[in-house]
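Moderator note: this is an archived Q&A kept for reference. The question asked for a predicted structure of one protein chain; the sequence and the answer are reproduced below.
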Amino acid sequence: MQLSLRYLSSRSDEWKALVQKLDNLLCNTNERKVKVCCARETVPKKTVPGEQCDICTDYPRKCVFDFKLEMLKSDADGRRADGRLRSVLAYNGTIPGPPIVICEGDELVVNFKNKITGKMTNMDGSSSVTTLHFHGIREKTRPWSDGVPFVSQCPITPEGQSHPKNHNPFPFPYGFNTDVDGAPAGTYWYHSHVGAQRTNGAYGALIIKEKGTSIIKKNIIDDASNTLVLQEWYESSTNQVPVSLLINGNGRIGELMNTGDDEQITAHLKGKGAVFNLTKNKHFDPHNFTTNYTEFHVKPGYQYRFRVIGAISQNLPLRLSIESHTFTAIAMDSLNIQPVTDLTDLWLAAGERYDILVKTTKEQDKLGLAYKIRVLGFTDQPDNKCPLCTIAWLKYPKQRIDPIYVTDSNCTGFHLHSTPLRTLNPVPNKYTAWKNRIQYPHWKNSSTIGDIFIADLRAIKPEPAITNLANTQYIEFDGNITFNGLRMSYPPVPFLLQDPTDKTDRCGSTCKGHPPSTTCTTKNPANCSANDYCKCQHVVKEPWAPGWWVEIVLVNNGHFRTAAHPIHQHGGWYWVVGEGQFEIDINSTYIKHLDQNNCAAKENCLPRNIYWPPAKDTIQVPPGGYVIIRTHLDNAGTWIFHCHINYHVTIGMAMVLQIGELKQQDWCTK
């Protein structure tokens, strides 16, 4: 009853009054079965339709969007994808879904309805239940709005279907307060967190605009419409052969397209890389396309801010470059970084975002063809084979586009194997690239060419308390697509809503005591073997300790044909303090030995940068290597921590980072 009332809180005034009365009662009792939060708005907000919130005002607003997720066909403008007819999932009828653009100080409310009808068969067999996740948002006072099934909520059943536990005829009100929920200005995105739904179109851009002036906004054209949402697109919802790339939901397929068998598809999904066969595209007509490439319009002599979102589903990182232009990276995963200038190429893996500045040329062929924004990926990533590519147009005044241009199966003109001049965030699967990278501060010299990795970037401000460590955890990936040999299973009652906590099938680490006097114990299933994996409810439990941090050393032990797993943390950013790669196969025992015995202090022996480290919420962990991250223990809740390759998280490459004793938290805005 209590949970249902919370879901109804966006309805009538009578419901709102009842819910507020109940909230006040529940927020002042220690015997709560469901954790809810008092609504303590210090500044009243004017409620406006969300579509009006893209222009910032000098007063805070409550921006309300109405979303529905439907199963449709790619048969109408806004969701034609690459021009082939197939089943899709679309928010409000479009792929990507409508852009959510709000401003600093605003509150977001998305009244969400599950309108999936019929039977949408996803590759992983997932049903028609769904959730909505705001990728990158901390949800600091609303952990139930994180949108992860059986972690923060029960999944939402389709409207009209009865379910004894969570049937609800009203919309589910997702949202956050930008000023209290840990949502600074930046580039985010949203997507379903159920099965393969985002693979089939259930995703969109989420932009929080800066309100006042800043060093980044000064003299820069910052239009949220200059956003590129990148995704690979598949043969169908059940046939996971990647056949095209989409920019803002738009793409084309030429005369030939990929096809493959079960063995090739399995290799692709596992992240090992696959070389697909080519077959004739029976729908190809070189003079008649039903889709167009995305166009971006610019003027000479300006700087434009472009936001790039990696809405990538599987292990298919994508490389972006702009014909006859270089660019400057100014932010990644929503937060600003020290600018990296004169870049020619940028790689993104699943879940990553970058903000770049493009300086338009003063001299250009005003009567010529528009410039191509090129996006390229390889289905066989380890060997850079089997390319997929697409474009968007960067169009100056009086330039023209070629209406019948289509990329071919060889990606002619995309410089497949030549070495780019300055590349940010290359896929870290080649030791020689890591060894020969441009390290900090040498990349500040824009004439220095080579690869620039995340660990060598710097934030624009320090994190003074980042040396206050509660404990260090080591998480190892192996060929079974696990964390420490464990695959995640989920409880029937979401972790966040359990009171008391059900520990029957729990595994993982439990850390007790307040830092610095924290002690950790590990519990794993008794039937695990060295050559197999176990399934359990994998939880790393840490104390709620503002001002203190947990350190996690991520170890990717595979060296040959292993994915550079993009690891994503919900509930906030982590700060990347270390990264390394080896020419040999490694494991956590090897890394622990180097970290705990290879120096006089007998701890933290691996190199760490605690001065201005960059923040991320998704990072690729190099095969045969490691990444060291630190997370602030100030956000109470249960936060999933997972590989963002869709197949990997679906089969269980995930765990929950629990911060605090849940029954002690009220999650109210202080």
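Archived answer notes: The longest strand covers residues 61-73.
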